[in-house]
Amino acid sequence: MKGLSLKLASGLIIALMALSAVGYPIMALAENTTTTTAAPSTTQGASALAAKMYINKISLFINKTLELAEKYNITIPENLTDNIETAKSLIAEAENALENGDIGQAIVYATKASNTFIDVAIYVWKQISPEERQGLKQERLINAVEARIMALHRVQVMIQKLEMAGVQVDMLKNLTVRINQTLQQALEYARQGNLSVARQLMLQAEKQFGLTLKATYKLVNTKLHAVTAAASAMKGLNTVLSRITTHLNMTIQFIEEGRYDEALVQLNNTEEALTNLANALSRIKDAMVRQGVNETYIEAVDILLNATNTSAIYINESITALEANDTNTSIMYITMAINELTTAIEKVNETGLPQIIRKELRVLRGAAEKVRRAIIWDQARLYSAISVHVDREKAKLELLIQKYNNGEITRVRLLIEAGKTYRHMVMIKQSLDDRAPNWLIQKIDAFLNWIKTNIPGVVKGGSGPGGHGGQQGGMHG
What we know:
Layout: H1 2-21, H2 30-33, H3 43-71, H4 78-99, H5 103-127, H6 130-164, H7 170-192, H8 195-256, H9 260-290, H10 295-323, H11 327-347, H12 355-374, H13 379-405, H14 411-431, H15 438-454
């Protein structure tokens, strides 16, 4: 990279020194070359961008010189016409080399083009009267300052987007205000014909602009991309939510019609969609943590990530239940998955979130409310299904306790199965929202206490009310 930079610098300096010696308006080149706002992301990309800018400068230098010759009816001597064609041909060769990835050769061709064309530029410039030269210098300088003002405006737009994303940009905003003030002064002096002062102000603004541009792109490539990705993920969640609603309504319909194979296809599609979304949210969260994004944003993504993962678990449980022909439990888990997602969306606090995420969150909340209304199975049926499910799970554990007391299974096996059931019931209880009836909450709590009482060791830190074992139906020995 250092070698490439030296080649660029040496080739351009030779050309500029030759032109400066005869009073050529060097700032003419700034109009085209100081407005680039593309930021390279890799070393190779930076080298290619630098080479492209260098080739463009030489090409612009050739074209502007020929435009001057045409404007002032200057005839190029025969001994210099070959230089023009050779220089143009070398620029074409440089562009081809760059397209083929040969950056070093591209620089060589561009430098040869510049060196070949220098004599033509000097000749044309000498044919123009001093008064006209001064006017050209003034015009070119004004154009260069105006071009920089436009470039600064584009940077200010990027800074505004960063601010909308919740990124702290006060320092950058203040810096752009000062740069704009300096450029406006430079423009005023240039229009008055005081070119030396205008150039000094322009160079001062250029230095500040370079630092501002670098700092802005650093924030864009880190924090803005992460926050934008979070907003996109919310938009993606909206799409997935709509697709899941369709899948799950079809699933419920298929189950109630006894078309279990078709229902299983829909459930597997839903589980895959949720898993893919959870993976995307996880990557976004990791990126936000790495890039130091505001914790409020990370918390919002984390709520949605956890809900998506839990919903995927519920759908998996629904598949397992349906494969065992337990249709009520299967539908119960489907409804719980929807409740988990929609409740999580409502839980995300808008306070402190950037505008770009708040916008998508509001759309998502509207979609969540539609989903609640769209699901065929109503809440009453869900609560009834959960109640039946609690009874079934308790009956399973009572049978396991009996088998243990009869010596048919080991204590370890009983504890493993009871632990699964306990965690499972805790998860179901946590999935219920404020609309859940008290009798159902009390029934689940009673079952959890029953597990701790009748199967000591399931929960660390105690067995719950009733001590270890002593109730009828508990473990013995």
